[in-house]
Amino acid sequence: FGHTYGHALEAASGYTLPHGVAVGLGMLRVSRQAKAAEAERLLLELLPKYGLPTEEPVTGDLVPYLERDKKRKDGRRWLVVVPKAGHYEIVPIPSEAQR
């Protein structure tokens, strides 16, 4: 959960963004894109408690970095989404959400 976008954010930052920060931001991005309001709300409370940001410091196109992701099947990239506490789904990344 959060690693697909987290690794893309790390790479886009030139690896100046620490792994834990990038994964936390990736979790938040996935929750927002999946419209998982409960997960987003919990992350917005939890991340700052651990000194982690809730705003991405990296801007620009992440697609080239997402292309490198190892979680590919049938030519598609997949994400782990947590729609609510204790549940997860594995869903394809919608093409419009890749940017």
Blueprint of the fold:
Layout: H1 3-12, H2 19-33, H3 37-49, H4 63-66, E1 72-73, E2 76-81, E3 89-92
Antiparallel strand pairs: 1-2, 2-3
Helix pairs in contact: 1-2, 2-3
Give the strand order of the largest sheet, numbering strands 1, 2, ... along the chain.
Answer: 1-2-3
Describe the global form: flat
List the secondary-structure elements in sequence, H or E: HHHHEEE
Which band does the percent of strand residues land in?
A: 5-15%
Report the C-alpha radius of gyration, rounded: 13 Å
- Strand tally, please? 3
Q: Into which percent range does the helicity of residues fall?
A: 40-55%
Average pLDDT level: 86
Low-confidence runs of at least 5 consecutive residues: none
Number of helices: 4
Between the first and last Cα atoms, what is the distance in angstroms? Answer: 18 Å
Protein architecture, described:
- This protein is of the alpha+beta class.
- The chain has four helices and three strands, in the order ααααβββ.
- The protein has a three-stranded antiparallel beta sheet, with helices on one face.
- A hairpin with a 2-residue loop joins strand 1 and strand 2.
- The chain is flat and about 35 Å long.
- The two termini are 18 Å apart.
